Amino acid sequence: MNTKLVRALPAAAVLAALVAVSASTGAVAGALVTGADIKNGSVASADIKNKSVTGTDVKDGALTAADLSAATVAELEDGSGQAGPRGPEGPRGLTGDNGPKGETGPAGINGINGVSGLQHVEATKDLSAGVGGAVVAVCPGGKKILGVSGDWTASVRPTATSINPNLNSGAAYGFNDTDGTKTLRVTATCALVG
Questions:
Q1: Would the CA dihedral through 26, 27, 28, 32 be positive or negative?
Q2: Cβ atoms within 10 Å, residue 143
Q3: Bridge partners, residue 145, by sequence
Q4: Burial 42-60 (b: 16+ CB within 10 A, else e)
Q5: Which among 3, 14, 36, 102 is most buried, taking Cβ atoms within 10 Å?
Q6: Among candidates 116, 113, 111, which has minimal Cα distance to 144?
Q7: In angstroms, rounded to a whole number, what is the distance separating the alpha carbons of residues 171 and 173?
Q8: What is the rounded distance in angstroms from the CA atom of residue 186 to the CA atom of residue 135?
């Protein structure tokens, strides 16, 4: 038997066992390091990989404005960020109290005087067959004429009417083209104006 080979085998086996133990011990040791194993204040910014701490690694409400850069605080206070989506419509609010009574407004201008003492004045005139003529109705006591109408009392013959320029009377005109006497009538509407 080769004695050199017998001596080399135990040495190789011991070396392989040491490598296996050290590799598994490092993995176990790495998995067992907790916050309790690290001295408070001993981990510096340089010990943490850049961009490796995220929002899920920070306790909610743990950061304040003092923990943020001045530029970040200014950006948050500026409110110029992108608008968020529109929220749902809220419930209708309660009806508010009535406001105080407003001041009385200025008096309006006086209106135009209306009419009073409205009355109808009627006059008639008999016209013989084949005769034309006019009949006049005069408004009494300073009243003014508002309108006038003319007709025949027992006929449908045409008539014409007019109002005096002084607005105190109206007339009806007609021609009796029948075989008998007919009565021409004028009706004036009169009232006190102003």
A1: positive
A2: 22
A3: 190
A4: eeeeeeeeeeeeeeeeeee
A5: 14
A6: 116
A7: 7
A8: 6
The CA distance from 134 to 174, in Å, is 6
Give the total residue count for the chain.
194
Query: In terms of Cα–Cα distance, which of 129, 149, 142 is closest to 168?
Result: 142
pTM above 0.85, yes or no: no
CA separation for the pair 163, 41 (Å, rounded): 115
Structure-block tokens of residue 34 = 């907790």
Order of strands, sheet of 132-138, starting from the edge strand that comes earlier in the sequence: 132-138, 169-175, 159-163
pLDDT tens, residue order, the chain (194 aa) = 444 444 444 544 444 444 455 555 555 555 566 767 777 767 666 667 776 777 677 777 777 777 777 777 677 677 666 778 899 999 999 998 998 998 998 998 887 777 889 999 999 999 999 999 999 999 998 899 999 999 998 877 899 999 999 999 999 999 999 999 999 999 999 999 87
Cα 150 from chain centre: 58
Three-state SS string over 6-31 comes to: HHHHHHHHHHHHHHHHHHHHHHHHHH
- Ramachandran class of 51: left when φ > 0, alpha when ψ lies in -120 to 50, beta otherwise: left
Taking a C-beta distance cutoff of 8 angstroms, is the pair 120, 189 a contact?
yes
**Maximum pairwise Cα distance, the chain:** 178
